[in-house]
Amino acid sequence: MELFLQQVFNGIMFGSTYAIVALGLTLVMGILNIPNFAHGHLYMLGGYLLFFFAITLGLGYWAGLVMAVIAMAVVGMIMERIVYRPLNEQPHINAFIAAVGSLLFLESFAMVVWGAQGLRVENPYPQMIDFMGVTMSVQRLLVIIGAIVLILGLHFFMKKTIAGATIEAVAQNREGAMLTGINVNRVSSMTFAISAATAAVAASLISPIFMLSPAMGAILGMKAFIIVILGGMGSIPGAIVGGYLLGLIEALGGGYISADYKDVFAFGALILILAIKPTGLFGKGEV
Amino acid sequence: MFTKPIHTKLLYIVIFVAALLLPWYVPDAYIFQVVITSVIFGIAASGMNLILGYTGQATLAHGAFFGIGAYGVAIMTEAGISFWLALPAAALISAAVGLVVGVLTLRTKGAYFAIVTLCFGVIAWIVAGNWIELTGGHNGIYGLGDPTPIPFPFFGPIEFTTQTSMYFLSLAALLVVLFALYRLVYSVFGLSLMAVRNNEPLADAVGINTFATKVISFVAGNFIAGIAGGIYAIMMASVSPSATSYLLTFNFLIFVILGGMATLPGPVFGAFAIPVLMEFLQFLQDYRHLIFGALLIAVIIYFPQGFVGGLRRLNQKIAARRKQKTSES
Question: Could you tell me if A124 and A208 are in contact, meaning their C-beta atoms sit under 8 angstroms apart?
């Protein structure tokens, strides 16, 4: 029972990361119809920027986190402006190839600047808490709490502010939003900034627990895609529920079934589901 | 006759002769190895071009099918089957897996298709690294023998022990594949491929079975990838999970896009020019993907037709201009 609870705790922690990353992806993908395949790599870059601000510049963990998030928001805006906006009117396959290009660029950039070997951000909260037989480090609890705060904050932003309402308007009807005087380009830029910034939050929260490496974004990015496709493009609740579910499935599956093949099950399930329902479980339209 | 600045037929003949004579002027064995690898990657990239360029389906599983071909040949020759039997068999296995995957995934469109095929690519890579009984795990399979000599009247058997013979084997395969693709692309079926790419609902409306067309293109492309993988395995005399990696897929993608999507010489040119160029720019090795990532973005935004496509356009423009001048005077 204690082992089970421990696995559930770990699953929720991983799920928190997945949920935040998938949230950022679902925003750009469902709302702007852009398959940002480099999203996992934005997450990776966010982790390295935390390292840069917190350790290299010596700002400390929290100031480093804030700086990393701001810097990533700028990176997201630059990416939208340079890579995706010129491809707006072209076939989607071109945007996808450009996304692969940016993915290679970002991974190689991290490799050149920080090297291929893993880097460690010192854990600011290494204390352990024992609760009902489950050991949890404070940093891991922080990941879970941080995710909840971020999700609530984003919900508030989308539902209660005008800026959030414009994002939703563009999602529902691009032309209609233009007709009511919404600057669609500004909304895209803002959405990319939010998306990249949330990825940076996820990376900043989890990087004191795991090593940073240039390759860490690839598999996470794919998982985020799986969550978004299964949860429905542009569906924020879908991304959150899907993220926590995938985290739990992996933690329990890794404990009880083969750990080597755990990714195979997740990816295989996606292939099968899309074979039966090509637009995803809750998908509305096509990309 | 010489109205165009680049006379295509003449150019092809020059390239063909240069390719035939290559073993006699290649500087050293290492560069020769790079060239042979380029020929093999040119075969694989041509297969990807059929799916991506002509049919418009962004497959990201091409490295996986290349790997299936490579492992197929490695496992079969290890078991004592002749290479000449193992190569077509491995390519057929590649095509068969492609059929299953294609039927399952080709109902999806656009980015969904790309993600699903990438998922398959990662699965193949994980399986290659972990199914130790069959694939040898992360160490792979090594110490493959040379292909058995072909008995040939008068000259005696043709042996496949030297680099030169391996080069001609891959070159012959490349030419056969290019000829087959040429016949395919310029046939009625080739037109329906492009119709599916340009406007799928319209293609459907004029009576093309779009799903079957896409599946056939996907299977044929993966058959070609299997051939390339098989030759790669026997050339390297070994195979490891990196032969199925998605990085390989991204390399093929770079070759196809930078060389020229939906042109027959484009991917081959890309597969040649880029690795050979990198050999001469060794000091840039660390920045390789930094440069090619940025180039991929720039090319897809500003020159979606790639190098060969762009050259072709320029060639036609200049020819049209000269024609105008001669008719005016």
Answer: yes
What are the structural domains of chain B?
27-328 (1.10.3470)
pLDDT tens digits along A60-78: 888 889 999 999 999 999 9
B114 near A CB under 8 A: yes
What is the rounded average pLDDT of the residues A112-130?
81
Contact B162, B10 (CB under 8 A): no
Q: Which two tokens stand for residue A46?
A: 């966010």
How far apart, in whole angstroms, are the C-alpha atoms of residue A202 and residue A47?
A: 8
pLDDT in tens, B149-203: 766 666 666 677 788 888 999 999 999 999 999 999 999 999 999 999 988 899 9
Q: Which of residues 88-147 of A touch B (CB under 8 A)?
A: 90-94, 96-98, 100-109, 111-112
The answer to whether A263 contacts B296, with C-beta atoms less than 8 Å apart, is: no
- CA end-to-end span of chain A, whole Å? 44
pLDDT (tens digit per residue) in B206-254: 999 999 999 999 999 999 999 999 999 988 888 888 888 888 998 899 8
Q: Find tokens 């296995």 and name the residue.
A: B93
What is the token pair recorded at A254? Answer: 């890794």
Rounded to 5°, the CA angle B268-B271-B277 comes to 125
**Residue appearing with tokens 């795990």:** B137
Contacts of A201 (CB under 8 A, 6+ apart): A20, A46, A65, A69, A146, A150
Interface check for A82 against chain B (CB to CB < 8 A): the answer is yes
Q: Does the beta-carbon distance from B287 to A101 stay under 8 Å?
A: no
Of A139, A134, A149, A113, residue with least CA distance to A20: A149
CB contact under 8 A, B253 and A226: no
DSSP B244: G
